[in-house]
Amino acid sequence: MNVLMVVAEMAPFATSGGLGDAITGIAHALGRIDVDVTVVMPRYQFLSDLGEARPGEGPAVALYQHTEAGVRILLVDDPESFDRPGIYGPEPGTAYEDEWRRWGRFCRVAAALSGQFDIVHLHDAQAAPTALLSSRPTVLTLHNAAYSVMAPVEEAVDLFADVAEAHDLFEWYGSANYLKAGVMAADQVTTVSAAYARQIAEDPEVSSGLNEYLAALDHPVIGILNGIEIRRFDPRTDASIPEPFGPDDLSGRAAARDELIARTGLDGSGVLFGMVGRMTGQKGLELLDPVIGRLVEAGFRLVAVGNGDEDGRVDGWVADHPEAVWHAGYSEDLARLAWAGGDSFLMPSRFEPGGLGNLYAMRYGAPPVVRFTGGLAATVVDADADPATANGFGFYDYTSEALAAAVERAMHTYRHEPVRWAQLQQEGMRADWGWDPSARRYLDVYQSVLGRA
């Protein structure tokens, strides 16, 4: 089977967080079950030296081809759209004013390529409108339904003028909604956990109002749990951390913790929590506001890695507690150090489609504290709920007190029950969080869609 993946990000070439890692993981895992995968993505300004040129398609001046671990990557050279700094905007957490035009042109290129493939697999809003023009069946994966690309409706329709029903597909309260158009036009919609598939079909807040459209699809949304690339993220072989370690010998974590403390300047006598991802309202950061002072007094320390529209809130914690909270933009090396050197990992999400940070943290021996929602509820087992298989701590109520209680349980266990803490670490590290089972499920989806077509 020959699959074209249409994406905005792919690690390690261009990534702002979990999406790029997910694309790489899916593509490589599909390759291991003999699916021929080609990824098409923009040739961003910082990728100008990658690949060999070939003729363009659609609005693209050229396509640049590169092969990585058996996956063919086509980079769309469209200087009008992508010869500028940043993936989505000039700075992390920002967006260009013409996002709709950039991604509309990109989708036209992907659609022009689509006839060479059996299936076209689209990822998130930036790629979603490709479904309107694709000459082959399409699968749309929603990694996060809370983010769309909005456009002036008439201008968006003009970009897709050869689609008779474009206005109806795009129209959203007087604007154009790229995610809605993709959901309506795709042959199958999937998302990154079974729990999140249910949520987005029921809850307008989680789905940005698309729940009614998702619930009414002829073929219900399929949830396929995210994984991680266990070969690429392995503390036994990771050259970016100070010393290797594994579930049978955790001693190397001490060197990573020392380096993390040295890099951040935090008070190392406390319990060090990592937080890696976009700093947005989705991540439940507001829950920390009323309780962070009390937690800091009890020994809570936080390394926050990532940017977003909640940067001001996080930077306020830094200003109030400079010895206890540190914040920096995302880099993969810093993220790996936070997983390897943090004592625990904090992910109190209001909603969480799949969850990758928790999987990386467990892989690197940092038992997470999470709110049980979406993919987090499918991967984290609370220390008190099931001690035999536990790998972290969790809470259900979206309240500051519930968060504080879970953090306090984790800190108590870390400080006073070292044997139990080591068991949590080992349980998380030994689990198989790889992509292979998910790849087989994606192949089933592709075959089902082809069967219907």
Protein model, in words:
The chain is α/β, with parallel strands linked by helices. The chain has two domains: 2-227 and 435-452, Rossmann fold (3-Layer(aba) Sandwich), CATH 3.40.50.2000; 253-430, Rossmann fold. The protein has helices at residues 18-32, 79-82, 99-113, 124-127, 130-133, 153-159, 166-170, 178-185, 194-202, 211-215, 253-264, 292-297, 311-320, 332-341, 357-363, 374-379, 400-416, 418-430, 436-452, and strands at residues 2-6, 36-42, 52-55, 62-68, 71-77, 119-123, 138-142, 150-152, 171-172, 175-177, 188-191, 222-223, 271-276, 300-305, 325-328, 344-347, 368-371, 393-395. The strands form three sheets. A nine-stranded mixed beta sheet has the order 3-4-5-2-1-6-7-11-12, with helices on both faces. Strand 9 and strand 10 (175-177) form a beta hairpin.
SSE blueprint and pairings:
Elements: E1 2-6, H1 18-32, E2 36-42, E3 52-55, E4 62-68, E5 71-77, H2 79-82, H3 99-113, E6 119-123, H4 124-127, H5 130-133, E7 138-142, E8 150-152, H6 153-159, H7 166-170, E9 171-172, E10 175-177, H8 178-185, E11 188-191, H9 194-202, H10 211-215, E12 222-223, H11 253-264, E13 271-276, H12 292-297, E14 300-305, H13 311-320, E15 325-328, H14 332-341, E16 344-347, H15 357-363, E17 368-371, H16 374-379, E18 393-395, H17 400-416, H18 418-430, H19 436-452
Parallel strand pairs: 1-2, 1-6, 2-5, 6-7, 7-11, 11-12, 13-14, 13-16, 14-15, 16-17, 17-18
Antiparallel strand pairs: 3-4, 4-5, 8-10, 9-10
Helix pairs in contact: 1-19, 11-14, 14-15, 15-18
